[in-house]
Design goal:
about 160 residues, 4-stranded parallel beta sheet, globular, single chain, alpha/beta, about 10% strand
Length: about 160
């Protein structure tokens, strides 16, 4: 981080999606010196998370969060369900209506919050899983992402 960066002098604020028991949170806090300030979880593992981060706001179900009302964060982390992208799973990919399709809600959070850093934890099968993101009303798929999302490092 540059010496004149506006975040220098305070811990990075971390928001956690599909938080589980908080393992990714611990790793990111350790690596960045940040602190988790809110989380979103509906699984029973939330009791473990709440025990280690008492008093931190739980946004609840990621599918119903109004991101415009959420405190912005510097780092957004998450580990959405892997069943549909795992090599031993159903192979449904990131399609809407699948458990792994919760990715689209994480993408909406990234769009709204514009964090400096995003950390996503998932299985290796995610790298080759088919991805589908709903097209907003009136938009065409070509207009959503006009540039290639990958960088070609070949000389």
């Amino acid at each position: 981080m540059r010496d004149d960066h506006p975040l220098r002098g305070r811990p990075l604020h971390v928001g956690s999606l599909s938080s589980g028991y908080g393992g990714l949170d611990l790793a990111v806090e350790y690596a960045t010196g940040g602190e988790t300030i809110w989380f979103s979880e509906t699984n029973t593992s939330i009791r473990v998370f709440a025990h280690h981060w008492p008093g931190f706001p739980d946004l609840g179900d990621i599918t119903s969060v109004e991101w415009a009302t959420v405190l912005p964060v510097d780092v957004l982390i998450g580990g959405f369900p892997c069943q549909d992208v795992s090599t031993v799973g159903r192979g449904a990919g990131l399609a809407p209506g699948t458990r792994s399709g919760l990715w689209s809600h994480m993408a909406a959070a990234i769009d709204a919050l514009q964090p400096e850093l995003v950390v996503i934890e998932n299985v290796r099968g995610l790298l080759s899983a088919p991805a589908v993101r709903p097209t907003p009303e009136g938009a065409t798929p070509d207009a959503r992402n006009p540039d290639d999302a990958t960088i070609d490092f070949t000389p």
